[in-house]
Amino acid sequence: MELKEKAFKSVSRKTRQEDTVIDIGGGVKIGGGNFTIIAGPCSVESEEQVTEIAKNVKKSGAHAMRGGAFKPRSSPYAFQGLKALGMDYLLEAKRATGLPIVTEILNIAHLGLFNDVDVIQVGARNMQNFELLKELGRTDKPILLKRGMACTIQELLMSAEYVMSEGNTKVILCERGIRTFEGVTRNTLDLSCIPIIKAASHLPVIVDPSHATGIASLVAPMSYAAMAAGADGLIIEVHNDPENALCDGDQSILPSEFDAIAKKLGKMAKIFNKNM
Amino acid sequence: MELKEKAFKSVSRKTRQEDTVIDIGGGVKIGGGNFTIIAGPCSVESEEQVTEIAKNVKKSGAHAMRGGAFKPRSSPYAFQGLKALGMDYLLEAKRATGLPIVTEILNIAHLGLFNDVDVIQVGARNMQNFELLKELGRTDKPILLKRGMACTIQELLMSAEYVMSEGNTKVILCERGIRTFEGVTRNTLDLSCIPIIKAASHLPVIVDPSHATGIASLVAPMSYAAMAAGADGLIIEVHNDPENALCDGDQSILPSEFDAIAKKLGKMAKIFNKNM
Amino acid sequence: MELKEKAFKSVSRKTRQEDTVIDIGGGVKIGGGNFTIIAGPCSVESEEQVTEIAKNVKKSGAHAMRGGAFKPRSSPYAFQGLKALGMDYLLEAKRATGLPIVTEILNIAHLGLFNDVDVIQVGARNMQNFELLKELGRTDKPILLKRGMACTIQELLMSAEYVMSEGNTKVILCERGIRTFEGVTRNTLDLSCIPIIKAASHLPVIVDPSHATGIASLVAPMSYAAMAAGADGLIIEVHNDPENALCDGDQSILPSEFDAIAKKLGKMAKIFNKNM
Amino acid sequence: MELKEKAFKSVSRKTRQEDTVIDIGGGVKIGGGNFTIIAGPCSVESEEQVTEIAKNVKKSGAHAMRGGAFKPRSSPYAFQGLKALGMDYLLEAKRATGLPIVTEILNIAHLGLFNDVDVIQVGARNMQNFELLKELGRTDKPILLKRGMACTIQELLMSAEYVMSEGNTKVILCERGIRTFEGVTRNTLDLSCIPIIKAASHLPVIVDPSHATGIASLVAPMSYAAMAAGADGLIIEVHNDPENALCDGDQSILPSEFDAIAKKLGKMAKIFNKNM
Fold first, then answer.
1. What residues of C are in contact with residue B224 (Cβ under 8 Å)?
2. Of D150, D111, D67, which is closest to residue C131 (Cα–Cα)?
C-alpha cells in the first residue's frame, strides 16, 4: 500500500527536498546529519532527582533532557505528575545544565506554563487530538509528535500536517511502538517506519525505545537498531533509581547504562555518518 | 486475561450491582431493559438535511438523533464540520421532532455550545484525552464514550472511571470497532466486548455498526448481532443522500433501510426481553 | 479495501449465484436456508464421554457432533489426542446417535482413518497448509475450513479455492476469531466477515464461538449474534465435565447450557427465516 | 507479560547456557559470535539464474544460498515453484559455488528430495504444522524455523521445542515480520523479539528483512538494524532481474545492492563483535 502524499503536502518531501533541521536551543539541532539524544526520567519527581539525572546524562553526551510534569495515565488514580511544580523543577535543571527541555502538554490551557520549554511533546494518546495540534501549530515552538499506538504512518504524517498547516514548521516525529498481539513487549517497535518516513517527508524522526518495549534491557539494542535504521535521534528514559520510580520504572535505565549506550552509538555514528 | 476491576471501581458491577439507567431527556432512557436507537447523519450539513432525517428516523422509531457539528478528521483539509452553525441546526431539529440530541465535543473550550445538547459524545480518538474526560466528569450531562481504535476493554472502563471519578455517573459506553489486520472492513467490530462489559460494569453499552464496518450493507446484520450479543442500543448513521454526504457516505444507510432494520429489531426485542 | 474475486473464482458468487448446500449425511445439510449446529467436546477422551455428550446434544437439537482425536497443541508436551482410538470412539458415538461426525485432520497420511468421518476439519493453524488443502481437494468429503488467526477474509477464500480447484466443491467456511491486541478474550470474533463472505461467495459459513472467545459465558451471546449476523450454523464445544476436560475446559459449556442456547436459537430462526 | 519457559525447556537458556552453534556445512556456522548471511532468489527460476546469483552473492560475502523450489502461495493459480527440477538447479548452484543451500519444505512426503540440502526451511505458514515439525525433529538436518505472521514469541519457541523434543537440536529461528494494522509495509518487522529470544533461548536467531517489509529499499536499513539488535544473521532475497522475478520482485534487491549492504555490515561487525 502506498502513502497518499497529497494528504500531507507540507510534510512531504515532494514539497521540500532538503531535510528540515530544527534548532531546539542550547546549540542543539535535530535533523539533517545530526543524531540527537534526549534523555531523562519518565516523571519529574523532585528538583534533586531531575537535576541529578540531567547532570549525569549531559556528562554522557545527551543533547536534551526529557521529563514529564503532566502525565497522561490510563487510571485516574495513578500519579498524574507534579504539574506546575514539575515544570519549575525542569526549568531549574535546565539552568543547572544548559540542556534544552522536552516535556509533554496535555491541555492547551496549560500553554502558558510552556514558555521556557524548548520542545513541546504531544503524546501518543493525543496524536489525533486535532484541536491541540492546531493550537500548537499557531506557536513557534518545536513540537515532538509521537505516533499513536494504533495509528498508521499515513495518519502520523497527516497529524504533522495539522501542525504545519497552521504555520509551525518545527515538527519532530517520534516512533514509540504500535499495539499488536505480541504481549512480551509493551508495544511493537516499528523501525521500518523510519526509512518509509525519511523517504516520504523532510521532517526528522526519532525513536523512543523505552515506551516501545517497556523493558529496560531492550533499550540498548533497540537504540542501536534505531540508529542503524536511519533515525535522527532517540528519546530515552533514564532514572537514578528505577525500582522506586513513580512511573514506568521497568523501562528506565540507570545513568551508567545510558553512558554505555551513548559510547557505542558514538562508534556507530562514524559508520552511519551522523554528528553526535 | 482477567480484567483488573480495582482500576475502575466506580464503573465496576462489584460496586453497583443494578444496571445504571440514564435518562437522556424526552422520556428516553438508556440501560436496564431498554434498547435505545440513536440515528442521524455523520455530519450536520444543512438545517433541512438534519431536520428531514430526524423526522424520518423518528417515524421509524429512533429514540434520539445523532449528528456531528465538530468533526475530527485525519486530514486538516477535510471538511471539519459546520461547528456553531451546525449546533444550531441540530437544536432546530430537536425542536421540530422532540428527539434528544447526541453530538461530539472535540475541545472543552466549546462546552458552552453544548448547553442544550442531551448527550455529549467523546469520540474514539479522544477516549484517552484524560483532560477532556475530567472536565466532562464535572458536568451533569450524559457522556457517550466511544472505545478507541486500539484501546482494550480494560482501558475503556478506566476512561469511564475518569469521568465518574469527577462525579458524573451518566456514562454510556460504545463499541465502534477496533483496528486489526483485516482491511475489507474499516475496523473489526468486537461484539464479544458486550457481554464482557455487561458482566464487569453496571454502565450501558451501545454499538456503532456504521463506523465499525464502514460499509452500509453491513449495518443491518451488525445491528441485529449487536442486540443478540446483549447491547443496550445502537448508534447508526442515516443519511437522505449517502452518495453526496460530506462525510462517511459509504457507511450511511437510507431512511428506508433504517426503517426495515428498526422493524426487525422490534421483532427480536421480544425474544431478548428488551423495551424498544 | 475490496476483495479481489479473481483469486477465488470457483468460490465466488459471480461464478455461482445460488448458495451451495452441502449434504453431510444423516439427512443434515449446511447452507441455503439451513441453520446447522455442530456440538461436542474439544477432545475425545473416552467412549463413554463422547457417546454421552452426543446423546445429550442430539436431544437438544444438534445436527452433527464434533470431537478431536488428533489435536494440534502449541506445546509438544500437551495432550495430543487419542488419535486412532479416538476415531473409533467417535464412530461409536455416530452409530449410537446417527449424528454425522466432524473431526480434524492434521496430516494427510492419516486420511485412511477418515473414511467414515462425515466432515473433515482443517484447523486454523493449517488454513494455509496448501499441500493438505490440495490433497483434501481430491477427496469427495465435505471440508470444514477454519479461518487462520491472522488470515484475512481474502486469504480464507483463496484457501477454499485451493480445495475447489482440485475438484472438491464441498467446502464449509468457519470464522473462529482473529488475533488482535485485545487479551480479555482469546481471540476477537469477527462477525462482520459473515455478511462480507455471504456476499462474495456461495459457500456456507459457520461460526465457532467457543474458540473465538475462550470463555464459556460468551458462547451463548456470540451464538445468537452469529445467527443474527447471517451465519449458516455454529460449531460449539460442549462437555459433560468442563472443569476436568483434557483440553479447553474454560470455553466448554454444559449440555444443559447448550440446550438453552438451542431453544433460543430456535425462536430466533423464525425471525431470520432459517430451518433448524 | 513474561515468557513461560517451562513450555520450551529444551530451547530454554535455563537448560543450556552457552549459545548453540550450528554447522550448516561448507565451513559455515550459525550462532555464537558469527553473523551469517543467506542470500538468493525467492524462487528458483532456471539453472542459469540461480547459479549466477549464487556466484554473485558469494563474491560479496554471503555464507549460504537461499532459493525456493516448492513455493507456498496464497493463490492456487500463482506460480508454485519448479519443485524437483528446482531442487536440481539449487544443487547445481551448490556444486558451482560451494555455498550451503537453504530451501523450504512444504510436505513431509518430499523429504527424500532434501538429502543434499544443508538447511531445511519451515515457512511462516507452517510454523504450527506440528506434524511437519515432529518429522523434521527426527532428521539430523539444520531446520530454519520462521515465525508465523500472527505467532507470539512464546509460540515460536514452543514450535522449536516440537523439533527439539524429537531429538534434532539444530534449530535456527527467524523473525520475518508480524501482521499488524500498518499496511505500508507488508508486515511489521519485530526486531525487539531478537534480544527477548537471545535472553530466553540458546538458539540462534536470524532476520528476513525482505519478507518482513516487502520493499526493496528497506532491506538495507533493516539489515543494519537487525545486526544492531543482536541478530545472528540475515536471510535476504537477491535477484538479478527483480522486475521480472516470478515471485516477490518488489522486495528483491540487486547483487550490487547486496554487495553494498554486506560491506557496511562488515564495518558494523567490528563494533558488534561479530565474525563475518
1. 228-229, 272
2. D111
End-to-end alpha carbon distance in chain B: 35
A43 and A239 Cβ atoms separated by less than 8 Å: no
User: Which ranges of chain D would DSSP assign to H, the alpha helix?
Assistant: 47-60, 84-97, 130-137, 153-165, 193-200, 209-213, 219-229, 255-271
User: Percent of chain A scored above 90 by pLDDT?
Assistant: 97
Is pLDDT at A1 greater than 90 in this prediction?
A: no
Residues of B in Cβ contact (< 8 Å) with C226? 225
Query: Could you give the CA distance from residue C36 to residue C235 in angstroms, rounded to a whole number?
Result: 9
**Domain assignment of residue D274, yes or no:** no
Residue B27's contacts (CB-CB under 8 Å, 6 or more residues apart) are: none
Q: CA torsion angle for B117, B120, B123, B129 (degrees, to 10)?
A: 130
Task: Please check whether residue A273 lies inside any domain of the structure.
Answer: no
**ipTM reported for the complex surpasses 0.90:** yes
Q: What is the pLDDT of residue A226?
A: 98
Q: What is residue D90's predicted lDDT score, i.e. its pLDDT?
A: 97
Q: Does D13 fall in a domain?
A: no
Model confidence pLDDT, tens digit, residues D198-257: 999 999 999 999 999 999 999 999 999 999 999 999 999 999 999 888 888 899 999 999
Chains with at least 3 CB pairs less than 8 angstroms from chain D: A, B, C
Q: How many CB pairs (< 8 A) connect A and C?
A: 8
B180/D183 touch (CB, cutoff 8 Å), yes or no: no
Q: Which residue of B has its CA nearest to D178?
A: B181
Give the dihedral sign, CA B268/B269/B271/B272: positive
Pairing outcome for strands D233-237 and D36-40 = parallel
Residue B233: closest CA among B144, B162, B137: B144
A106 vs B76, B125, B131: nearest CB: B131
Contact B195 C217 (CB under 8 A): yes
- For C128, the closest of D107, D109, D125 (CB atoms) is D125
Q: At CB < 8 Å, which residues of chain B contact D?
A: 150, 179-181, 183
Q: Which of A131, A135, A149, A168 to mutate to test the interface with B (most CBs of B within 10 A)?
A: A131
Closest in C192, C221, C271 to B230, CB measured? C221
**Regions in chain C scoring below 70 on pLDDT:** none
* Enclosing domain of residue B58: 5-71+78-269
- Give the integer Cα–Cα distance in Å for D37 and D40: 10
Instruction: Please give, one letter per residue, the 3-state secondary structure of C9-73.
Output: CCCECCCCCCCCCEEEECCEEECCCECEEEEECCECCCHHHHHHHHHHHHHHCCCEEECECCCCC
Interchain contact, D130 vs C155, CB within 8 Å: no
Query: What is the H or E stretch that residue D233 is in?
Result: strand D233-237
Nearest to B100, CA basis, from B81, B124, B126, B120: B120
Write the residue in B129, B150, B179 that is nearest to A129 by C-beta. B129
Identify the DSSP state of D32. Answer: T
Chains that touch C (3 or more CB pairs under 8 A): A, B, D
**Could you tell me if residue A4 is inside a domain?**
no
Beta strands B28-30 and B22-25: pairing type?
antiparallel
Number of domains in chain C: 1
The C-alpha of B212 sits at a distance from chain D's nearest C-alpha, in angstroms, of: 15
Question: Reduced to 3 states, what is the DSSP secondary structure of residue D196?
Answer: helix
Q: What is the pLDDT of residue D238?
A: 97
B272 chain-C contacts, CB cut-off 8 A: 224
- The C-alpha cell that represents C32 in the structure block: 441455503
Residue-wise pLDDT for D147-177, tens only, equals: 999 999 999 999 999 999 999 999 999 999 9
User: Would the CB atoms of A180 and D189 count as touching at under 8 Å?
Assistant: no
Residues of B in contact with C272 (CB under 8 A): 224
